[in-house]
From TrEMBL:
Domain (Radical SAM core): residue spans on this chain: 143-375
Name of the protein described by the UniProt record: tRNA-2-methylthio-N(6)-dimethylallyladenosine synthase
Lineage of source species: Bacteria, Pseudomonadati, Pseudomonadota, Alphaproteobacteria, Sphingomonadales
TRAM domain sequence ranges: 378-440
Designated gene of the protein: miaB
UniProt remark on cofactor binding: Binds 2 [4Fe-4S] clusters. One cluster is coordinated with 3 cysteines and an exchangeable S-adenosyl-L-methionine.
Organism: Tardibacter chloracetimidivorans
Domain (MTTase N-terminal): residue spans on this chain: 9-122
Family: Belongs to the methylthiotransferase family. MiaB subfamily.
Main location: cytoplasm
Assembly and binders: Monomer.
Tagged with keyword Signal: no
Amino acid sequence: MTESPKKPKNYFVKSFGCQMNVYDSERMAELLAAEGMAAATDAESADLVVLNTCHIREKAAEKVYSEIGRLKKNNAGSRVVVAGCVAQAEGEEIVRRAPSVDVVVGPQAYHRLPELIRQAGERRAIDTDMPPVSKFDALPKRSRQGASAFLTVQEGCDKFCTYCVVPYTRGAELSRSFAAVMDEARALVDGGAREITLLGQNVNAWTGSDDKGADVGLDALVRALDALPGVKRIRYTTSHPNDMTEGLIRAHAEVEKLMPYLHLPVQSGNDRVLKAMNRSHSRESYLRIIERVRAARPDIAISGDFIVGFPGETEAEFLDTLEIVRAVNYAQAYSFKYSPRPGTPAADMTGRVAAEVMEDRLARLQALLGDQQRAFNETTVGKRVDVLLERPGRRTGQLVGKSPWLQSVHVEVAGAAIGDLVTVDIVSAGPNSLAGILPAKVAA
Ligand code: 5AD
Ligand code: SF4
């Protein structure tokens, strides 16, 4: 008889992919800590390693297997949990390809992690259920936080863009209750958070009933956070163009703590491609939303997501994407080559774009987006801005924080600490960050 392995003493959670995974990773870490396990400093020294995986593109999904291989080479005795969207999408296939994996757990079932780890002492444990009881009700209360904290308010997606796995890996759209969100926000602030970023795959599709029983949207959560003592900054991500309600746009004009930044993916600037993607917005309707948002908050920074080489995309259609980028003028953006995902409608479409054509389009798009980002960063030089200090910098005496427009700002500040909101003068801008100094004191 083989001896069942000892209970792991320490854990390490490695996160891949989006901010929702970062949030889930934090919650899994809190759960393991509540079980009495200590946090390890790296995967090599941990008894238990959780890989919180991403399935959005093929490259991201394949990373899991190389990661498992590397882990087993450097830390053969560790127990391995594969969590996240690859776990959900591939389930048992993971243990077939990587027999050293002990637990496979999907994004809606990770509150059962302690039990699954116990089971895995005897046999492998796989749980990719989407249980009707929300994991949020079973997770421990939030504990100590950094200055900036994520708070998942909505999960899943009902939009079914034809390229996207999210509706399959994260399930149907589900909003957490107003009360649950506000409870968690209070716990985050008590734990030290000064900025709260509301998260959802379609965060602006959040709906709920407020404390008076009225049906409300995301703007009501923003306003409730605005009134919560200790909250200094509010953000939300990711949004869908069709869910940019009048109320939310108005909140950008009226709620000072709501930061002037909006991540609003458009994916393509061509109506035929948008239709084939099932985006349910057009180039024009997207541009009109941007206009309204800018009218409400003229200094807002717009960020976006783009896919090049969607099946059938012609050169002329790609040029429409460059055109919409010029029309919007993005402060920041993410862009990707189309990656066919098993089980999605686009994976069966004809007209695959050749790899080198995709490569070329991505390079041209990224050159334009890079120019816009640099130009945007330059506009902040000479401005006096508030920076929320979040972490130590590489140099001693240096702290790194975020501007209202989500740019990283390196600040030399004697006497300031992480968690402080300081006012600095921006003295220089690089492609990815800014440098700031405390304003010189005016001589008396
Ligand atoms: N291929 C390439 N990019 C994708 N995205 C989502 N699915 C795919 C895919 N199959 C991109 C979209 C989305 C972002 C999170 O990832 O731009 O907004
Ligand atoms: Fe995916 Fe589209 Fe839903 Fe975004 S809106 S998660 S791209 S299906």
